[in-house]
Automatic annotation (TrEMBL):
Protein name: Elongation factor-like 1
Top-level taxon: Eukaryota
Organism per entry: Oryzias melastigma
Entries under Pfam families matching the protein: EFG_C, EFG_III, EFL1, GTP_EFTU
Gene3D superfamilies linked to this entry: 3.30.230.10, 3.30.70.240, Elongation Factor G (Translational Gtpase), domain 3, P-loop containing nucleotide triphosphate hydrolases, Translation factors, Yeast translation eEF2 (G' domain)
Amino acid sequence: MGPASLQKISELQRNPRNIRNLCILAHVDHGKTTLADCLVASNGIISSRLAGKLRYLDSREDEQIRGITMKSSAISLHYGNGGQEFLLNLIDSPGHVDFSSEVSTAVRLCDGALVLVDAVEGVCPQTQVVLRQAWLENIRPVLVINKMDRLILELKLTSTEAHDHLKKILEQVNAVTGTLFTSKVLEERAEKVKEEEEMAVGEQVYDWSAGLDEVDDSHLYFSPEQGNVVFASAVDGWGFRTQQFADLYSQKMGVKAGVLQKTLWGDFYLNAKAKRIMKGAQAKGKKPLFVQLVLDNLWSLYDAVVVQRDKEKVEKVVSSLGLKLMSRDLRHSDPKVLLSAICSQWLPVSTAVLSMVCEKLPSPLDVGEERVEKLMSVGARRFDSLPEKTQELKTAFLQCSSAEDAPVIIFVSKMFAVDTKALPQHKQRPLNQEEMARRRELARQRHAERMAAAETHLVAPDSRDTEPESAKTERSTQPEEEEEQKEVFIAFARVFSGKVKKGQRVFVLGPKYDPAHGLRLLSEGSSDSEVPHLSCCSLQTLYLLMGRELEELEEVPAGNVLGIGGLEDFVLKSATLSVSPACPPFTPINMEATPIVRVAIEPKHPSEMPKLVRGMRLLNQADPCAEILIQETGEHVLVTAGEVHLQRCLDDLRERFAKVEISVSKPIIPFRETVVRPPKVDMVNEELGKQQKVAVIHQVKDDSSQGRVSDSVQVDPGGLVTITTPNRLATVSVRAMPLPHEVTSLLESSSDVIRTLEQINLSLREGKTLDISSRTVEAIAGLKAQLESLLQGRRWRDVVDQIWAFGPRRYGPNILLNSLKDYPRPSPWQCLDRASRTPQAGPALRDFDNSIVSGFQLATLAGPMCEEPMMGVCFSVERWEVRTPAPLKEDAARSSEASGGAAGSSQADCYGPVSGQLIAAMKEACRQAFQAQPQRLMAAMYTCEIMTTADVLGRVYGVLGKREGRVLHEEMKEGTDVFLIKAVLPVAESFGFAEEIRKRTSGLASPQLVFSHWEVISSDPFWVPTTEEEYLHFGEKADSDNQALKYVNAVRRRKGLYVEEKIVEHAEKQRTLGKNK
Ligand SMILES: Nc1nc2c(ncn2[C@@H]2O[C@H](COP(=O)(O)OP(=O)(O)OP(=O)(O)O)[C@@H](O)[C@H]2O)c(=O)[nH]1
Ligand SMILES: [Mg+2]
């Protein structure tokens, strides 16, 4: 079949019943792109010899080099089946975890999915993820068990063993589907049972169990007899459904095809004597039908062609199958070429897969009501709470009509960048006769002019302005061309209703657009520009997506996937477009990946900063998952989902979007600083006596304040730090305490509530009366109650009411406490009390209250260890005195006349304003108080799930151990030899982890990393031996590896802070062993 013409495809686009929008989903490397190649080859777009080698849809260079897909891309294919012509919009998606957001964008545009499973590896973590994604979007999956050849050639299984193995895989896949669909299955069963019960009333006694068996929920599961499973080897180009063999053998054996189809998979065997198909092959030790009629054939073919290379046998097989081979293939030295030549004729994988797709996957007309309602109801809003006009649109969705009056509704799931040169408008077309004649004439003229110019040149050598006109224009267009080599953005979209025309004007509905609000405003006569989250644009160009190529289209009817040009100024990453303002924005795409790996980026040449900034903005638009931000430090930061994703983003930035040299920092690993309770045992697990404990604290204090101790700072043995401002007017005493772990997590998770609380308190202080919604009051009261229940015991008595502030940034997981006896501050929870919700109720604030809070905020934002934010620390202010300045002697006379306030000014001047001094003093007091306690670093942790087989389990443990990982639990999957390990791993140790695991286990285990929580690193970064046992055990220097100190130093070095490190010690002791032996 040759490539379909554009006209043909546009024709097919008009018949939604015969359209299938589908994506290929699988775990990484299970053969998605290879299978797509086979399907593309069936349309003659690439040669079938190259299918599987070209990986046509991996159009990026780095995709080809690395051998993994990094973006989803679409291609339209046509297929004739049973006298009908079908149009298939196929989307190939990446399988690597880092790119799972690309899968989400693909799934949104489809009605069905081809789920691939590697016949050897079976269900992998990403297989589960994609099945879940398909389920979340309500799209129907069908299954392809790929890489069947590996069972024959790699695992060298017999056909019977392979059959058992395949059964297990199918069970695994169905188990995943089962857990996802359980509720749906139960619902449908209940409905069916009810129906049947109604029908059965009065006829017979209803048998429960039999009824359940008969209920047909099988369309949800994968089973070969249902025809929704293909067994394939994409590399060798073959694939089949049991149906094909059933048809074949029904003629040969004289059995009905329907019966064979039902019995070909399962525990059935052929009783040759009785000429009957019987059940119970396994119990009776017989060969199941599937082995006898299907697998044995394949096994003997592989045996003849690849293993034995028996020419005669091959020829026999070929002629018995009625195939015709080219002698070139027969003579080829690589048996695989011959094999794929035979297989792709005998059981072409494209036919098996495409016919399954056409039969089993729904067309755009079959979009279920459930899916439509899910798409249309944003957030927690219920569908029936939407305006009537909006609800009416549901029928438009369900009809998927392309009639002129049907409202146009389009969803853009991502924006992707293409080179301008790749656009069809800029591609060179073959010239027609007329154009060629014109060009010829132009060339002749130019030549004549040049000759003339050469002559004048001889006469007047310096006359330059005789340059032919055409040459001038050529030169002037050159820079323009360079300018044109830009990236343009194309929207990856699908028409859900109506017919889209080129140049049509539509509304762009932002994710926060509310149709009820919008409709009201518009009916009141507002123009569209006044409605929030609504803008208007025109669809400049429409494209048919053909893998690497684009074709321009004039119009696209409902139910098709398309590309739209000219939206880059209106759409950032995804959007809903519609002609009707009643249309709600679609629910946001379920993104599986959360971006966590962050690096700082700067141009090699500082002058290229604007280019880089522009490039980063483009990258942000072109990638569904990458995030771009500017940190407080002014660094430009790129946040990506993982290492591979990071690499791709950087390549894109360098080569496409910014086109400048960039330098990239090492991944920025976030840490937190905290304090813990003094340890009860020392490093060698000896109990610390009271005496020694004091010694430990002294040690820390001495260390921290060495050389900096001044008379204005005092630290008492209990860790209370007292600081006086330089002008000696104010004194604060602060003590640091660790917060209980649960409190820290509570504060972290309720940062939103705290932020609201802070805002309310601020406006109360400013004297505004507030109307607070009951939901907010409830949330705040809930937080208070939880804090009270968690902060119990003598140490925390009544502290909840004494909370002064949260920090850093006023909502962080640290607390400032007011433990002053003489300063009754207004309670932070005053908004809960109705009476005090009016301004100026309760006690007033003391002067400089704000300075104390600011000092605390600054201290918690950057701790003393390595300037990382603090976490889980409570600072209690136990003394705060502000003296009114005593007038200086010489000023005394004057000040008695002047007002009291101005008196101190001359003295305060040399130190600056009091408020500033107090901020600095408070900050320093917090830092010193922090250092007076045992300090610890907190590391961000990933949870990681690793699936691995028993034989490489040890190696996985080895790698985890080396990288400070901790196994949480391990379980064996029933019926397989696969172990599922759940572990936690510090983010700091995760770089190269996936790679190492894969290498050490030869690709058998692949981890999935997800950020989970913060964890205290148990080792003390500033630890030195203090007890005798410790001296004995660690030596005087105690210079064994200290992980926490290593992290601290690494962060300090990155931030350009002073790092205390000894590089060479006792250099005189170095010697070369060989010489002095
Ligand atoms: N033996 C065997 N190898 C296969 C088969 N199909 C694909 N492969 C190989 O598996 C590897 C991965 O194939 P791809 O098609 O790139 O896999 P993918 O699923 O697209 O991978 P990602 O897009 O990175 O997730 C390639 O080396 C293929 O040659 C098959 O049927 N049999
Ligand atoms: Mg791929």
